[in-house]
Design a protein that fits this description.
With 121 residues, this protein is mainly α. Helices cover 51% and strands 0% of the residues. The longest helix has 21 residues. The chain starts with a helix and ends in an 18-residue tail after the last helix.
């Protein structure tokens, strides 16, 4: 569990690295990524930041993303389907709820009041 949690924490560092690249910095340094995280008010995990910069430095990010997308597409996903419909409402007891329904009235629609101007003119 600890490894997956640290991986999730590292994602903000990856996102900041990608923002630097998208902003025109082809090879962001740890300092560049730190500036982005600081601007976002996010804490910087130095170990995660160093790992991200070391792993992504000098690599073509478009190729990495394409390769990763291809790998994800090959993973079988079962989708799970819908949750199913809710159960049917219980049947009313003999002679129980029918009169109450008849007594319920629909509210009458309010008449439009002329306010002296039109919203669509």
């Amino acid at each position: 569990r600890a490894a997956s949690f640290s991986g999730v924490r590292a994602m903000k560092h990856v996102a900041a690295y990608l923002l630097c690249v998208m902003g025109g910095n082809a090879a962001p340094s740890a300092g560049d990524v730190k500036k982005v995280l600081d601007a976002a008010g996010s804490e910087v995990d130095s170990a995660a930041l160093d790992k991200v910069v070391a792993e992504l430095g000098g690599k073509n990010l478009e190729e990495l993303i394409t390769e990763g997308t291809t790998k994800l597409a090959s993973v079988a996903g079962s989708g799970g389907g819908g949750g199913g419909g809710g159960g049917a409402a219980p049947a009313a007891a003999a002679g129980g709820a029918a009169p109450a329904k008849a007594a319920a009235k629909e509210p009458e629609p309010e008449e439009d009041e002329d306010m002296g101007f039109s919203l669509f003119d």
